[in-house]
């Protein structure tokens, strides 16, 4: 198998398995800590437990988009151009969009009992929603470009443009909401500093989701390699069939019109 | 592009083979010096505007579409409650964004006709010049559209016009930003069969800060409070320069792959 079609792995088989097991264990610990051990919040009650998922998913979303931008930059840089970076960028962005969607959904579930509304036009919420759509568009573009060299280059450009746009979105939205609506529901008093078992639970959540991110990215990366290998094999079979058909018909062994692989 | 191997990066090869036996290293000698960037920009923009003058897609299709959007806003927001006049800046820029989509689609679409890419490659245009030229043409088209859209809104929405300096100071970078981001993404999606349907999903989230900043600046201008607007104007310039720079840097990687 060549480098462009190989069924490459991000980590070795052992590390992949260990990551999956560690992620599963951490999620189990998070479930026990978050649902049973940690006390209900004094102000927010049980709804606060959503934070043990909401904060880690938001963290993984930012991590994933950061990895996508870094991998895209490394792909565009001629000295480090390798198909591995393109696959990593795509795999990471998929997990990032998933986690951004989860962040929005979980935040909405939390906002209903605490704020009384499913959605508030708060700066952070708007920025996250725009982020979600930015990378949804990136994934849609990746899908239609396909795994060619030119497609990977364009996808990398799109990822970097989206990444550069994030601070512009962030500052414009931040500025808008602070200029026109000083006291939002998102006041600092509503999120008191946390400590003890609640902080521990939150950190276990961050750990669990980070491990889960690594395991999912490794899996998605491997799938991308397998898909490329499958497509290459199908092309080779098609060419062999055309050549065989031409030979059977008594024509030239190398028929015109067969695209070079 | 085997002939391009000896060329500087970012340039397409020149297909024509010189006299038999000529070494590739001798080829650059008989090649005219590349044009300065501004000349390339002017050439591409003039070409696009010439195509527009002959085909009248902007005046005949995009502008009427934007006007229909303006009328539809009046259906959605009851004209009797004064909502339209208050929301006019935002509605104006939403209409411009929506009209900008077919405009950039058309701008990139004319380059996708069979053979056009090869001919463009033979001209050895700098991709940056091609990008800025196309953006400039779209900016001119959108400016013409705004020149009709603005007065139409004043008449239909009963807006009291004012603060022309701020309107212009915000309108110019906002239009440049929309045209630049739109052209870059249309180039990214060029050659795919779903360009028209994919483009709105790509362009609208990226340009959402432009809509936000331009709307706030225009609200401040119409409210005769231009002092608040200059921060938004600065933000619009940051966005315009960012998208222009991104397009100039990336259009070579986007455009020259022949797909």
Question: What is the first-to-last residue Cα distance of chain B?
Answer: 13 Å
Name the largest protein-protein interface in this structure: A-B, 32 and 33 residues
State the end-to-end CA separation of chain A: 14 Å
Percent of residues in beta strands of chain A: under 5%
Count of individual beta strands of chain A? 0
Q: Helix tally of chain A?
A: 6
The coarse silhouette of chain A is: globular
Report helical residue fraction of chain B: over 70%
Task: Supply the number of helical segments of chain B.
Answer: 8
Order of helices and strands of chain A: HHHHHH
Largest sheet of chain A: none
Concise summary:
The complex is a heterodimer of chains A (261) and B (259). By secondary structure, chain A is mainly alpha-helical.
SSE inventory with pairings:
The complex is a heterodimer of chains A (about 260) and B (about 260).
Chain A: H1 13-37, H2 51-76, H3 83-115, H4 123-145, H5 149-180, H6 196-248
Helix pairs in contact in A: 1-6, 2-3, 2-5, 2-6, 3-4, 3-6, 4-5
Chain B: H1 37-55, H2 57-76, H3 83-109, H4 116-122, H5 127-157, H6 164-189, H7 195-222, H8 229-255
Helix pairs in contact in B: 1-5, 2-3, 2-5, 3-5, 3-6, 3-7, 5-6, 5-8, 6-7, 6-8, 7-8
Commentary on this structure:
The complex is a heterodimer of chains A (261) and B (259). Chain A has 261 residues and is mostly helical. Helix content of chain A is 74%, strand content 0%. Chain A has one domain. The longest helix of chain A has 53 residues. The relative contact order of chain A is 0.15. Chain B starts with 36 loop residues before the first helix and ends with a helix. In chain B, helix 2 packs across helix 5 and helix 6 runs antiparallel to helix 7. The longest helix of chain B has 31 residues. Chain B has one domain. Chain B is an all-alpha fold and 259 residues long. Chain B is globular and about 65 Å long. Helices cover 71% and strands 0% of the residues of chain B. Chains A and B meet through helix 4 and helix 5 of A and helix 6, helix 7 and helix 8 of B.
